[in-house]
Amino acid sequence: MVSYLIKSIICSGLLFAVYHFILKREKMLQFNRFYLLAAMAFSLLVPLVTIEMPSQTASQAIIDNPVNHNIVGTMADNAVQRATAQERAALPAYLSWLLYGLVAAVLLMRTGFQMLVILRSKSGRRVVPFETAQLVLTQGDTPVYSFFKFIFIPQEAFENQSVPKEILTHELAHARQMHSLDILFTELLIALWWFNPLLLLYRRAIRLNHEYLADDAVLAGPTGVKEYQLMLLDSLLAQHGTVLASSFNYPVTKKRLAMMTTNINRRIQFAKKVFIALLLPVLALALSEKTYSQQPDSGKAFSPDRKVETAHDGVSEAEMQDFFATIGKNTRAVKNRKGRTDFHIELSPPEENRLYAVYERMSDAQKAQIKAKEISVFRMDIPVKKAPTPEMFENWKRMDLFGIWLNNKHVPNSQLNKYKYSDIAEYDLSKLYGAALKGRGYKYQLDILTNDYFDKTYDERVNNRVIITRIGWFTPKEAPKKGK
């Protein structure tokens, strides 16, 4: 959660900086509108995306992760380690989620209340069709504002025809271009991702860009720029309505007045659009989670044995019968936590080695009989020491990414502070999927053996490399006859 928060804020900050310094002064209003909306969604979703990277060894995969080699990644890693340690030491996890839910609920209720106020102001009022929108005639001297296709206007001003056509054109542009949809989308994101304060800057920029668009629609008609600017200044002291509505009386600033006379340079605008198109995939690669498939190397111990050639005729019928009888006699049915039956084969290492030697000499047809009974037989490679690099070892301390099993015991990531990278003799990394991720704050399980533990268990592991497992059940009498 903390890693996601850091990455999301970094991404939204970088994208808003691009808007502020590169796009804001350009009169490409529709592009800026959709850029701001897409930038918010992009910064909130990209840290949740998992990208499959080309296959490589586990060591190279972790070192080559771009998040560890650029400024963005360094900021995120350092902040994650500090913030996560403080968070876990201070509050239980459920309190953080409770706080998040309470704040989000309050903000959602506020937005709902504001919508209710607008809809109630429409109830019982006279509605007059106006081009593609509808005029809602209100009581009192309220400012003109719009919400979706409804334009709210004082009834007295409408009957006296004292509302300038520029104001109606302005509000009609808000209605036609569905600016209320942008506002509601922004309010929803702020409510659900309230922990990102930069979204408030996005909301302000989006609202101002809406006014640029509506002003541009007015100036596309017969109204002159100077005349319209004076009208805007006359409305400066008018009361502003609800934050969900679009209003002609949106605060007037020098930027809004200056945008009306901004010149358009198509080449510069095109170059900036190309820059944005190149920036987004770079940020996506830098801030998303990356998964790597691992290729076995000379130091990886836990890999299936290589396929061995078998004699064409395979083993004798008596050896096949003995193989099945031994498995059946040493299989025990056990109920697991979910109430299902698992089958455990309990054999001594010498017996496992003997059965594996028989299995190696079987023909393909005989091995197919073994597979049909849902029996799996394989032998692991001889374990070989392979220490991680210093960069890999430091990266393993990230609690949001790795769950650590040290010498076959689950330990906190901070336990690694007691060791150096050269103290590690062997490691195995596996990604968690589906139900295995439930209730866990990490995405990878990392099994680590120290040099002392590796040496202590070496002989036992070398002599006990054969693994025989089964899913189905059969009795010795059910062992298949030769040729069946």
Automatic annotation (TrEMBL):
PANTHER family per record: POSSIBLE SENSOR-TRANSDUCER PROTEIN BLAR, SLR0241 PROTEIN
Species whose genome carries this gene: Dyadobacter fermentans
Keywords noted in UniProt: Membrane, Transmembrane, Transmembrane helix
Highest taxon, organism lineage: Bacteria
Residues spanning the membrane: 6-22, 34-51, 97-119, 183-202
InterPro entries, alphabetized: Beta-lactam_resp_regulator, Peptidase_M56
Protein known as: Beta-lactamase regulating signal transducer with metallopeptidase domain
Span of domain Peptidase M56: 165-260
Listed Pfam families: Peptidase_M56 (PF05569)
CDD domains: M56_BlaR1_MecR1_like (cd07341)
